[in-house]
Amino acid sequence: MKRIRYTKYNGDLASEMDMEDLLQALSDYLLDSGFRDGFTRFQELDHTLDDLREALRRILEEGHFFDESMRQKLDEISAEGKAEGKMDELIEKLLNRMQQENYISSAQQQDPGNASQVGGQVGDVQGEVRFEVTDKSLDFLGFKTLRDLLGSLGKSSFGRHDTHHWATGIETSGASQRYQFGDVLNLDTTTTLSSAISREGIGLPLNLEYDDLHVHQCEFQSSCATVVLLDCSHSMILYGEDRFTPAKKVAMALSHLIRTQYPGDSLSLVLFHDSAEEIPVSQIARVKVGPWYTNTREGLRVAQRILARQRKDMKQIVMITDGKPSALTLPDGRIYKNAFGLDPLVVSETLEEVARCKRSNVMINTFMLASDYGLVQFVHKVSEMCRGKAYFTTPATLGEYLLMDYMQHKSKTIH
User: Fold this and answer.
1) Measured distance CA(78)–CA(60) in Å, rounded
2) Interatomic CA distance for residues 370 and 357, integer angstroms
3) Global pTM?
4) Do 279 and 297 fall within a single domain?
5) 147, 149, 217, 234, 359 from 254: Cα distances, Å
6) Is the torsion defined by CA of 316, 322, 323, 328 positive or negative?
7) In the chain, how many domains are there?
């Protein structure tokens, strides 16, 4: 007689694992900014699939980001003398799942004639296989950063920019007003009928006249165009501290906040170093530090060109930096550089660009990650000229200051 033997089903650990927990555990690796020191877990790893395998191995062996039951299963797999090779199998399954669910995308660089992937697996091939973090992953990391920052502020919710104006719209928050031509016809039915009844008395049919019409008032909410001016000069990862990665995370969180809660606002990103250039906000996580010098003036010029194309109630520049202006683009295109002290030529030209921002009604808020005396004076001068604010903060508190400023202060001075 044929017999069937049943065994306990232990499940597929790669399918059971929460990908959001895994992605959060890998965030330091995925958002690498070029900072290297002996205490960084992933300092020697590059963005290749082999290095991603090694990063996954370290995360799984540590198990800090997983719940107790998941940690027990991982400990069983990694135990000595037991299930040899199962950890490698688990890592391969996780890699495949990350690709299938569009958390990463890979591009193979191999010699012509070599076989590609076999059986849908990410196998060993000759040549380097690099991967890119997808927009889906960046969106999730931005959301997580935003939630953590708002949690540290004690904020349970966040809304749109408030002003001192009243307007007619869909969201009611004030008393009724008599309808005027051009108002949104968000009719206050109770007040409208009461007006007609007080004039005509109770009876049918009830005649409504133009003067009876009342609409709800709501708070007028402004739109804002923001350019994040991010210093990516080499000093952002010098002196034993990574200042660039926290700045990238804040930019990602601000992007997620604007897209989900302030859909009328716009956000652009400009990197400045020896020169300056605009990059898509979606590319922020992939950016690393660049050359040595700080061309603040060129960054302001690029930001102004971006803001000139925007038709918003407010225009502002959020500048995140840790160093003094030390470079200048000359009229012939050459870069003038001087890293020693505050060069009078560089400072004067930079302040002239700040004055142009003021004439264009562009506000500059500066978040300074250093506190040298000369820099303090320079930043205060910039803030004074442009009616902006100066924050002398640290990488740990940068996000709290920036988001608090964006949500609570920027739109309250519109009259």
Assistant:
1) 9
2) 24
3) 0.68
4) yes
5) 11, 10, 30, 23, 26
6) negative
7) 3
